[in-house]
Amino acid sequence: MSANSLQELYVEQLQDLFDAEQQIIKALPKMIEATQSEELRDALTEHLEVTKKQADRVEKICDGLGEEAKGEKCKGMEGVLKEGSGLVKDISNKQVRDAAIIASAQRVEHYEMAGYGTARTYATLLGFDEAASALQQTLEEEKEADETLSGLAEQLNNEALNAEGQEESDEAGADSERPSTKSARSTKAGGRKHVA
Ligand code: FE
Ligand code: ZN
Ligand code: FE
Q1: Residue 45 Cα to ligand 3 middle (Å)
Q2: Quick one: which ligand is closest to 108's CA?
Q3: Torsion sign, CA atoms 172, 177, 178, 183
Q4: Which of 20, 35, 78, 112 is 20 to 30 A from 173 in CA distance terms?
Q5: Ligand 2: distance of its center to the CA of 107 in Å?
Q6: 59, 68 contact by CB (below 8 A)
């Protein structure tokens, strides 16, 4: 598929965002499940609900243009999410894992912010004012999610820092425990892969 006008490029960007949101809707429940902090879990759960509305918003914009929202796979988001889930599933320390979940989630938000900023600008240029303000709303929600994560990171990264110290002081225990925990975890993740 190749776009030969700004409007075609706009539609492709919208389809890319729609697919990215679908991937996030699938991935977030697993992230939420792996989270230890209740505050972080609540923030991710809330953003999952917001994400569903964002996907609907993109779909409505595509409908209005007489275009399908479903297009090609967003390989960028696929990579961001794959890296995030790979990172998180290998961490057995709960505090460090929460820090990794925040790190991964913030990459997701920033990738989305780039896409929505571009789509919003195209909508404005093409004279689709209603779509532009809907896309602006989503952009603001992504920024808000990112700021919430930054706020949570201030506390949770510190907890991860302290948790890491504790583990080092009990090196033998941590070493004997880690391999079995890790293999149990990867089996679990392998099982989930079939579901997704
Ligand atoms: Fe989103
Ligand atoms: Zn993409
Ligand atoms: Fe988001």
Answers
A1: 11
A2: 3
A3: positive
A4: 35
A5: 13
A6: no
